[in-house]
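Question: does this match?
>
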Amino acid sequence: MTAYAIAHLRSVTPNAEIVEYLQRIDATLAPYGGTFVVHGDLPEVLEGEFPGHLVVIGFPGPEEARAWYRSPEYQAILPLRTRNSDGAAIIVQGVGPEHLATDVIAGLPIEEPAR
């Protein structure tokens, strides 16, 4: 099942280190089947606040996403980004085309509404 490495970058200081990071990241993705799904566009905020940018990289599965993030090649360039940005990074597993919103109900602790 497809997995995604997602970064919410609330602020980025554009400088030579960020340029180097961008120049080197593509080569770190290729061995793990990673491809950019979302990168560089400012989001259209429909509700609430969402400062910054969103980056989404798709991988064949969560194992490949974790292996990419932990790889010596990516770890070598990661400080170029973390020294020059504020944000969070996560890995999530995608769902298939047959997924329904109600599929998550089984895993929810359902509480009775307050009366």
About this structure: The chain has a mean pLDDT of 95. The longest helix spans residues 16-29. The chain is about 30% helix and 25% strand.
